[in-house]
Amino acid sequence: MGHSNISITANLYTHETEKMQKETLVAFQQGMSKNEKRRQNVDKKFEPIED
């Protein structure tokens, strides 16, 4: 037995809570921070030589 409309199914099973949104934001920010630190480390290793 299924739902008569796909939007009913979507609304029941794909809702987001405020807590879920905050957790996603924190995870995204942490990932971006790690990437920024890696980029900075790479930039330090390959600084151009000035004469």
Main attributes?
71% helix; 51 residues; 0% strand; mainly alpha
Explain what the structure shows.
This protein is mainly α and 51 residues long. The protein has 2 helices and no strands.
Write the layout of secondary structure elements.
Layout: H1 6-13, H2 18-45
* Number of helical stretches of at least 4 residues: 2
Distance between the first and last residues' Cα: 76 Å
Low-pLDDT stretches: none
Number of strands: 0
The mean pLDDT is 82
Computed Rg: 22 Å
The largest pleated sheet is described as: none
Q: How much β-strand is present in the residues?
A: under 5%
**H and E string:** HH
So what's the oligomer here?
single chain
Class based on secondary structure composition and strand pairing: mainly alpha
What general outline do the C-alpha atoms trace? rod-shaped
Question: What is the helical fraction, as a range of percent?
Answer: over 70%
Short description:
With 51 residues, the protein is mainly α. The chain is built from two helices and no strands.
